[in-house]
Specification:
By secondary structure, this protein is mainly alpha-helical. It has one domain. The chain contains 5 helices and no strands. It binds zinc ion (ZN). The site of zinc ion (ZN) has 8 residues, from helix 5.
Length: about 110
């Protein structure tokens, strides 16, 4: 992937991140900082849910925010756009629609 292309995805991810953080609001973000999302997102979500701080919509945002963060971290390691399951390059059309995609189209289905 070319540097220019990565930069574009990075901007998309950062914009998405900003939007999600805004919609989650300050209180919830502080909640996330107190309880960093673990690798096992479903367990963590359950905990957050039990806290009854976040409603279902917030929970979706939290999951999406975590995916965005993971994508940015993979970008730093030079692994952005590589399918987590099979190691194939995720197509650019898929990344443009879903810049935080973790799987190629074949593995996602
Ligand atoms: Zn794959």
């Amino acid at each position: 992937m070319q540097a220019q292309e990565i930069k574009e995805y990075r901007n998309m991810l950062l914009a998405k991140r900003e939007h999600l953080i805004e919609s989650l609001g300050k209180i919830n973000i502080e909640k996330i900082r107190e309880n960093p999302i673990s690798a096992d997102i479903d367990d963590q979500s359950q905990e957050i849910e039990n806290d009854q701080v976040m409603d279902a919509l917030d929970l979706l945002d939290v999951k999406e925010l975590e995916k965005v963060d993971q994508a940015l971290r993979r970008m730093e390691k030079g692994l952005y756009g590589i399918c987590l399951d099979c190691g194939a390059q995720i197509s650019s059309s898929r990344l443009k629609a879903l810049p935080f995609a973790q799987q190629c189209i074949d593995c996602a289905h």
